[in-house]
Write a structure and sequence with these properties.
Rossmann fold; 6 strands; globular
Length: about 160
């Protein structure tokens, strides 16, 4: 099963980008096959990510090296290395930490993709995204569908004899 987890705080402007993506995907009502959409909020350690064979995480990621609305992608090996290229989550306990813990005990998903969006405003109380980050949502959704298609294709090919 593929899990798509949106992480963030909807009450703090662009920090809620991951949740906004999940809400948009739900509104599309497209048949996504063996895919589960999860509103992860800010509760990294309580997320059941170990249930998924493949995992896509969408979150706001701070980066002093990238302008707002930049979309960054990191695979599992890069995530497990920790603080990636100066990129870090705005949450106290990150999914990076959680995935590292699951990896240590042998319970991590086999494939992980982190799609990070650099926020413009992440500490302003507001439930809307800035226009720049709002515009980036469509590209994030395209990346999600492309990754689902890639993983599904690879999964079907591995079952061919």
């Amino acid at each position: 099963m593929i899990g798509i987890v949106g992480v963030g705080n909807l009450l703090l402007k662009d920090d809620g980008v991951g949740i906004h993506v999940i809400n948009r995907l739900r509104k599309l009502s497209l048949p996504l096959g063996d895919v589960e959409l999860v509103d992860g909020g800010t509760a990294s350690f309580s997320l059941p990510v170990h249930r998924y064979k493949k995992l896509i995480i969408i979150d706001a990621v701070k980066s002093p090296h990238h302008p707002p609305a930049t979309i960054l992608q990191f695979d599992k090996s890069r995530i497990l290395r920790g603080n990636i290229e100066g990129v870090f989550s705005s949450h106290d306990i990150t999914l990076f930490d959680y995935l590292a813990l699951l990896e240590m005990i042998g319970d991590a998903p086999e494939d992980v993709l982190l799609i990070g969006v650099v926020p413009k405003e992440f500490d302003t109380p507001d439930t809307t995204l800035t226009p720049e980050v709002e515009k980036a949502l469509y590209e994030v959704i395209k990346i999600v569908f492309k990754k689902i298609e890639e993983w599904s294709k690879n999964n079907n090919q591995s079952k061919t004899y």
